[in-house]
Amino acid sequence: MTTAKEIMHPGAQWISRKDTVERAAQLMKELDVGVLPVSDENERLCGIITDRDIVLKCIAVGHDPAKTTCSDLCEGTPRWIDANADVDEVLRALENHRIKRLPVIENKKLVGMISEVDIARHLSEDEIADFVERVYAGR
Questions:
Q1: Where is the signal peptide (predicted)?
Q2: CA distance 20 to 35
């Protein structure tokens, strides 16, 4: 059984919910990523912020990224997967919630992220085709 930890991209980094959107954009640039998990004071997942969130929910509506906090942009319940979950559970989570990225948590700490690229690297062509059809067919 292949686990989430085996297919994830290790080294994901939190951003605090109190940090500004401007800082989130800077960190995304430094890390060359388009998404950051957002943590509370106890380094527990409380949201996710994407580059698209920054553009559409902050800049496009005239908010100041230097004054807007990451928590201002986080909506809904953040989704995550346990590091020991098998790949089928990962695929179900991505499919059921129609999301493209999934933080991986081990012992209540962030240990990595799984993206569509990670899925593509670890599944057969038939499995990838089936996954893509299930996730994007209804969009």
A1: none
A2: 14
Question: Is residue 21 a contact partner of residue 72, using CB atoms and an 8 Å limit?
Answer: yes
* pTM of the predicted structure, to 2 decimals: 0.84
Q: Print the domain residue range for 18.
A: 4-136
Q: How many domains does the chain have?
A: 1
pLDDT in tens, the chain (139 residues): 789 999 999 988 999 999 999 999 999 999 999 999 999 988 888 999 999 999 999 999 999 999 999 999 987 788 999 999 998 899 899 888 888 899 999 998 899 999 888 888 888 888 778 777 777 765 5
